[in-house]
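Dear support,

I submitted the protein below through the web form. The confirmation email said the job was done, but the results page showed an empty box. After a refresh the structure appeared. I'm attaching both so you can tell me whether what I see now is the final result or a partial one.
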Amino acid sequence: MFLLRFFLILFTLITFASLQGCVSTPSYAGNACQVFQQKYFWFKAAKKSSKKWKVPIATLMSVINQESAYKQYAKPPRKKLFGFIPLLTRESSSLGYSQATKGTWERYKKETGKRLVTRISFRDSVDFVGWYIDTANKELGISKKDTYSIYLAYHEGMNGFKKKTYKKKPKLLKTASKVKKQAQTYNSQLSKCMSKLDRNKYILF
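What the results page shows now:
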């Protein structure tokens, strides 16, 4: 009886914590420490992805922040007829925290062997971003610390980066610089709170 009650309480706590880690958007996305203080499970997931793919946490988070502003169900805008009438179709199949397209997500699932992952899960999304950056490093030779080039490859795709399609997109180049600056800011912030975050080991998984 005691064990049953214990496991019921444990299950309730885990479920509640998981929901807290997945639902809602951080109140201040500009500070990595504050994001992780509100979303400690995100820190655990980002740290795991960083260790697995050898990509800085700051880079992972700056890409996700730019892509979805940490919104779980983020989608690209709808296409417009005559430039102002919204249609049912959207500009791409991107979805979730990482804004991964269906095709690239399927490749991620195939290459990692993960079948039950979803684009609306932060844990799966941050792992996807790490995988993508690792793939870009292998296929394009981009350094995992070169956030500027990483974002260009992330936005344009591997083939687009090879063809240098970004050179004709000045707005995208500015956005890549913004992501790079955000990663630098995140990195500086995390250097001051990482040890504190690491001490929170009493939180399950």
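Response: this is the final, complete result; the empty box was a page-load delay. The longest helix spans residues 170-198.
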